[in-house]
Write a structure and sequence with these properties.
Number of domains: 2
Distance between the termini: 65 Å
Number of strands: 13
């Protein structure tokens, strides 16, 4: 009887060990073999609304180079966040008369970006120095939306403040109110605003070379 119990116990241990090895193998497989041929590198361009100013259309672009990873299997596949190789937010100018696209400046390239960074709700208004622009750049500890606020001067071709330091403000700040106190809601009521769908139609037909974006991955 004792021998029989030892045999049964040994068989159970072997079975449990094999199951554990199988589970570990399934968990490690996406790490050892992170990619598959059907998961190519993705080059994603996310547009902001446009802004028409003196025969030129200005807009922001969130450009991301990423690749989806193999899912982790645990009863069912669990998708993992993609690997991001590059991400940046650019300011562009579109000249409808000449059908010309110009990359003016880089607003942000400190990827990976924190949550709730988005150009979809970017705002533009005329300013004394040129064009005030702002995009959602995250949230405060109190969950208030932060805006990265810049001013583009078309005459000098400069973005102020420029550089790598983010110029984060909330809607209640004096800096934001200085430029966007007259911003209307809904956003469509703001003069010069071009909806994203309409902006896509304006830019239809552009090639990868026209955008002048990195594609070395």
């Amino acid at each position: 009887m004792r021998r029989f119990l030892l045999v049964v116990l040994g068989g159970c241990l072997i079975t449990v060990t094999l199951i554990m090895l199988l589970v570990v193998g399934l968990l490690l497989y996406p790490v050892v073999q992170p990619y598959s041929p059907d998961r190519p590198i993705r080059y994603t361009r996310t547009l902001s609304p446009g802004f028409a100013y003196e025969d030129t259309v200005y807009f922001l672009l969130d450009y991301r180079v990423s690749r989806y990873r193999r899912p982790v299997w645990f009863i069912m596949p669990i998708e993992r966040s993609p690997t991001v190789y590059f991400q940046a937010i650019y300011l562009y100018a579109w000249e409808p008369a000449d059908h010309a696209l110009t990359q003016l400046d880089v607003l942000r390239s400190d990827f990976p970006f924190p949550p709730r960074v988005s150009v979809n709700m970017a705002r533009f208004l005329p300013a004394e120095e040129g064009i005030a622009l702002a995009y959602q750049a995250g949230t405060t500890a109190e969950f208030d939306t932060q805006w990265d606020l810049r001013v583009w001067n078309p005459d000098t071709g400069t973005l102020r403040p420029a550089g790598t330091q983010l110029n984060l403000v909330t809607e209640s700040s004096s800096a934001y109110q200085q430029y966007f106190a007259d911003y209307r809601s809904p956003a469509a009521d703001n003069p010069g605003r071009i909806a994203i769908t309409d902006l896509r139609e304006l830019l239809e037909g552009l090639t990868a070379e026209d955008w002048d974006l990195p594609r070395q991955w």
